[in-house]
Amino acid sequence: MMKALKRQDLYRVCDPSLFDFKTTDELDDLDHFVGQDRALQAAKFAFGMKGRGYNLFAFGPHGTGKSSLVRRLLNERVKNMSVPQDWVYVNNFDAPHKPHALSFDAGKARVFADAMTQLVDDLKATIPQAFEKDEYRQRRDALEAKFKEIQDKAFGDFQERAEAQNVGLLRTPTGFALVPLKDGTILKPDEFKALSEEEQEKHKQAIDTFQEELEQIVEELPRMEKEYRVSVRDLNREVTQFAVRHQIMELRKNFCDHDGVQSYLDAVEGDVIENADDFLPEEQAPQAPAMTAIMGGGQRDFRRYEVNVIVDYAACDEKGCRVVEGAPIIEEDHPTLPNMVGRVETVSMYGTAMTDFTLIKAGALHKANGGYLIVDAHKILTQPFAWEALKRILHTGRIRIESAAESYGVGPAMMLEPEPIPLDIKVVMIGDAQVYYLLNHLDPDFHELFKVAADFDDQMERNDNSMKTYAQLLGTYVRQEGLAPLDASGVARIVEQGSRFCEDAERLTTHMASIVDLVREADYWMREDGAKVISRRHVERAIDAKVYRSDRIRERILDEIHRGTIHIDTDGEVVGQINGLAVLQLDHFMFGRPSRISCTVRMGRGEIVNIEREVALSGPLHSKGVLILTSFLAQRFAKDRPLSLTANIVFEQSYSNIDGDSASSTELYSLLSALADVPIRQSLAVTGSVDQYGHVQAIGGVNEKIEGFFDVCMARGLNGKQGVLIPQDNVKHLMLRADVVDACDRGDFHIYPVETIDQGIELLTGIKAGEMDENGQYPIGTINRLAAVRLKTFSRRWFEMARIGAN
After folding, report:
1. Cα(first)–Cα(last) distance of the chain, in Å?
2. Is 705 annotated as catalytic?
C-alpha cells in the first residue's frame, strides 16, 4: 500500500531565520534584474549590435518586468550616446506641395527658426524704408518722366501735324479718336453736315490718312508701357536685393557650413525679391485673399518663410535654452498610423480642407530617430496600416509621412508630399509569446526586421541566494512604492506565495506584478491593523481577502455539492465511478472542482466512446486522452486477440466544454473498475494523465485540485479515509493551503503520489493490481486478472456470434 505524503512534502516553508535583517529598510536597493539572465543578454546584444534588422522583440507573460528591464537598460545606454539631430520642414518655393526637410545639430533648429522669424520682421521694416528713400523716388520719377516724355513726344508730333490738316486728336474712355477741326475748334456733327460736300470729303480724307498712323502709335503703347514696367521692376528688384542681402548676410554667416540652409536662403532671397510688394505698407499693396494666404502663396503671406521645427532637442526654461543629454527613448502608448509616422494637419476654409508645410507634425519615429522606440506589439497590430507602415519604414530606412486615406487610395485633392527623413533607430516591441511566434510564422518580413528576441521567464530557481535576492527586491519595491517595510516573517511568507504562484515548490515566480500587488494589499491590511511593519499575518490576510473577493462561484459550487444538487460521493464504494478533479479559471482566480466520472462496458468492437466528444463538448486534448485508453487496453490485454468491448465514459453533470488530458488516468481507473467489476473507494479523488503503458504523468493545477476535493470533504466532515491521488512527478509542485497541510498532518486527509496505474488502482480498490508472469497470466484475484478474464470472455462470445452469423 502506498504511503501518504508527509507534512514537509506538502508545503516548502521559508525559514525567516534565513534573513539577517529585521526589516527590509536595512537592505540596499537591488540594482540588477532577477531571474531574467537570458532576456538580459539578448537585450544588451540587440542594443549594442550594429546593422539593419537588429531590433528587439521582448516577449513573455505580462508582469514579468519586460518594460522595466528595457527601460533601465536603455536609460543607462543613452546617457553615453550623442544627441541626434534636430529636424525641420521648410517651404519648397519651386514646388510648395513637396516641402524640404533640413537637419541641424541638436539645439540649432530652434535657433534657425527664430532667426528666420527675426529676418522676416527685419525685412518688413527694411524694405519699406528702402522704397521711401529719396534716391529710389528720384530714380522712379525719372523712369516715369522718361516714359511720359516718350509718350508725349509721340502724340505731340502726331497732334501738331494732324491739326495742321484740320484733324484733332480726342481722348475717349475707350481710347483715342480723330475729329475734324475748323479754326482749331472741333466741328459738331451739325456743323460738319453744314459744310459742303467737297469740304466734308477733304476732312474725311485727312482723318483717314492720320487714322493709320494713329493706330501704329497706339500699338506701340503696350510695348512702351511694358518697357516702363520692366524698368520699374528692375529698379524695385535692385532696391529690394540690396536690402535683403544686407539683412540675410548675417544669417548666412551663422550657417555658413550648412549647404541645405544656404540653398534655402537663396530661395528665400529670390522669393522676397520677386514679392517685394508683400513687405510694403498695406495702403501701397493689394490685400491677399484669405484662401491664398492660408495656402502659402500670394501677397501678405509670410507663413511661407516660417520654419516648422518637428524635432527639437533644445530644452528651454526660465534659465535659458540648453541641449538635452543623450539619445531619446520614446514610448508610444497609442501607436496609430499618424502617431507613428507623423501627419499633415488641415484647416477648413470655405468648405475645403487646406494645408501647408507648417501643419506637418512629427510622429514617434521622428521623435525617436537616433535613439529608441518602444511600442506594444498588440496595440500596433490592432491599428490599421500602422504595422505595415513601420515595416516599410524600417526596410527603406526613411520616414515617409503617409495617411490612412493614401493607404485606401483616397484623400484630399491637395496633399503634401514632405521630403522623407533618413531613419537611424532601434525599435523595441513588447508582447507575449503567442504574438511573437504568430508573427514569426505568418509574416515573412518579421524575422528580417526583428532578429533578436528576449524571452522572459516567469520563474526562477528557489534557493537560499535567490530567496535573499527576493528579499532585497521586495525592499526596493516598497521604497519605490512608498509602502511600509516588511519584516523577515513577511518576506518569508511572500517567498512561499511566490512558489505557489508558479505552482512549484522548487521555483519562485518572476511575475513581479503579482508580487507587488500582494505587497500593496498587505500594506493596506497592516494599516488597518495599526501596525508599522508588514509581517506574515498581514500577507496571509491579504491572500485570504483576495480569495474571498473572488470565490463566490467556487462557494456556490461547493454549496450545490453539499446540498446534493451536484452529485459527488465522498464515502462508500461504487463500480465504474470515480471522483475526477478539474480546474476552473475565472480571471486571475483559479480553483479546483470535483467531477463525477462514470464508465460502463459491454461486448463490442473495441471502441471507447467519449460521450463528451459525441456531443462536441470534448476538446482535442481530452479526446486524445480517451483514445490513449484504447491503446493501453490493447497493449496490456489484447496483444494476441481483438479488443472486443465497447466502453462509454462520461463526465456526469457536465454542461460545458472539457479539455486537457489530466483526467485520463481517472477515466482509466473507472474503466478498469467497470471491466473487473470491482468497486472504487469514493473517499478518494484522482488526477493525472496516463500514457499507453500505464505511467501516470504530471498535470497542472495540482494544488487547486487537491484543495477543491478537500473543501468538499471538509464541508461533509473529514473521516480519515479521504484523500487525493496525484502523479509522483507533481510532488515537487505542492504548496498547499495551511488547513490542508494541517489535516494531512493529523491524518484526517491523505495525499498519495502514484507512478503507475497499477499503484493507483490498488489504492482505489484495495485489491492488488497483479503483475504478468512468464506465461502471460495475471495472478488470480487481481484487478488485471479480472479485467483480462472479462475481455477474454467478450472476445470468445464475439467469435461465437460471428461464427453463428457466418453459418
Report:
1. 51
2. yes
